[in-house]
Write a structure and sequence with these properties.
Blueprint (H helix, E strand, L loop, with lengths): L1 E3 L19 E6 L5 H17 L3 E4 L6 H9 L2 E4 L10 E4 L6 H9 L3 E4 L3 H15 L3 E5 L5 H7 L6 E4 L16 E5 L5 H14 L13 H15 L3 E5 L5 H12 L4 E5 L15 E6 L5 H12 L5 E6 L11 H19 L1
Parallel strand pairs: 1-11, 2-12, 2-13, 3-4, 3-5, 5-6, 7-8, 7-9, 10-11, 10-12
Helix pairs in contact: 1-10, 4-5, 7-8
EC number: 1.17.7.4
Cofactor: [4Fe-4S] cluster
Function: Catalyzes the conversion of 1-hydroxy-2-methyl-2-(E)-butenyl 4-diphosphate (HMBPP) into a mixture of isopentenyl diphosphate (IPP) and dimethylallyl diphosphate (DMAPP). Acts in the terminal step of the DOXP/MEP pathway for isoprenoid precursor biosynthesis.
């Protein structure tokens, strides 16, 4: 079984492909937006309303191509580094979080900052600072170079050691095996993280666990849902961007739990007829930064090819909501008060 993360080049396809046979769709639930993503996207939208364009955003606000392009069309300007933001302008920090040095850089440039870091990522940052203050070695399980890992590592660079999956366990060196704790990136594979922790505890029997699970509820819920769907599907289509860690994990989990093939697409236009040849059941889900409109487009594409019967497979209910950043809420209230006063006068 192999994961076809990118759709094949159309020029390499055979001249004729077998016609899809038609069948049913198992639609995973929960899927799509989590509370942290919803908060981050709304933060940019509200900032544009309150401050007007342009509003600068450091890095992609969330890892989804459609979301970024839509916000760009409304006046958001995405930059890679703080130094690209004009002095005195407004900059929003993405949902993945930033290191303390980034806040320092923003102050030096007199930037107005709005921190859209997911509260669940902030929790991991707080844990890193606390364990570093207690002089623990912190084994951070995550993917090297991911923005969330970069931000968390920046909280305690002298204490944090990155462990990039089970294969990275043997390379870990700590000062004191009796003062070691593990933390994790919030968007990892639950199964792979548990295996990494198991191997770490074989090496460091006194390894401490974080106070609470670091992998976010939405990542876990989407993986649980796709496990059930994949076990009953021939093929799984995951809607999500290639730089979205949690979306890529959904492809991997789909293959591990029974799907013969799994594909990652940003848009329905990337789907291919040949994926459906000889297929009776297609599983569909989406990453935590994917708006539902993109899933509906994939369902419409499938319906046009005879896969119009859709059964939602729900594994959990989600009701969590996060408040907008405090600095933005304050400015929204001030703008509303000013508008009310102007209308009265």
């Amino acid at each position: 079984m192999t994961a076809d993360v990118a759709p094949p080049d159309a020029s390499t396809l055979p001249a004729a492909t077998p016609a899809p046979t038609g069948g049913r769709v198992l639609l995973a639930a929960p899927r799509g937006y989590c509370a942290g993503v919803d908060r981050a996207v709304e933060t940019v939208e509200k900032a544009l309303e309150v401050y007007g364009a342009p509003v600068y955003v450091r890095k992609q606000i969330v890892h989804n191509k459609y979301v970024v392009e839509t916000l760009e069309s409304r006046g958001a300007v995405f930059v890679d580094e703080t130094e690209e933001v004009p002095e005195g302008a407004t900059v929003i920090f993405s949902a993945h979080g930033v290191a303390p040095v980034v806040h320092d850089e923003a102050r030096q440039r007199s930037l107005k900052t709005i921190d859209a870091t997911c509260p669940l990522v902030t929790k991991v940052h707080n844990e890193a600072r606390r364990f570093a203050a207690a002089d623990f070695d912190i084994l951070l399980i995550g993917h090297e170079g991911h923005e969330e890992v970069v931000g968390t590592s920046g909280e305690a660079p002298e204490h944090i050691h990155l462990v990039d999956g089970p294969e990275g366990v043997d390379d870990v060196v700590v000062r004191d095996p009796e003062r070691v704790v593990w933390l994790s990136q919030t968007t990892l594979s639950v199964d792979e993280t548990l295996e990494t922790v198991r191997r770490l505890k074989q090496r460091f029997p006194l390894l401490q666990d974080p106070p609470s699970d670091d992998i976010c509820y939405a990542t876990q819920n989407r993986q649980v849902a796709i496990k059930d769907v994949a076990a009953r599907s021939d093929v799984v289509i995951v809607v999500g961007s290639r730089n979205s860690s949690n979306s890529v994990r959904l492809v991997e989990v789909s293959l591990e739990y029974g799907a013969k093939a799994a594909y990652l697409v940003d848009y329905a236009s990337e789907c291919r007829d040949e994926w459906l040849a000889g297929v009776s059941t297609v599983g569909v889900t989406s990453g935590a930064s994917v708006p539902e409109i993109l899933v509906r487009d994939v369902l419409a594409w499938l319906a046009e090819r005879g896969f119009g019967e859709v059964e939602e497979v729900r594994s959990a209910q989600e009701s969590l909501l996060f408040a907008l950043p405090a600095e933005l809420r304050r400015d929204i209230k001030a703008a509303q008060t000013a508008a009310t006063g102007a209308s009265i006068s």
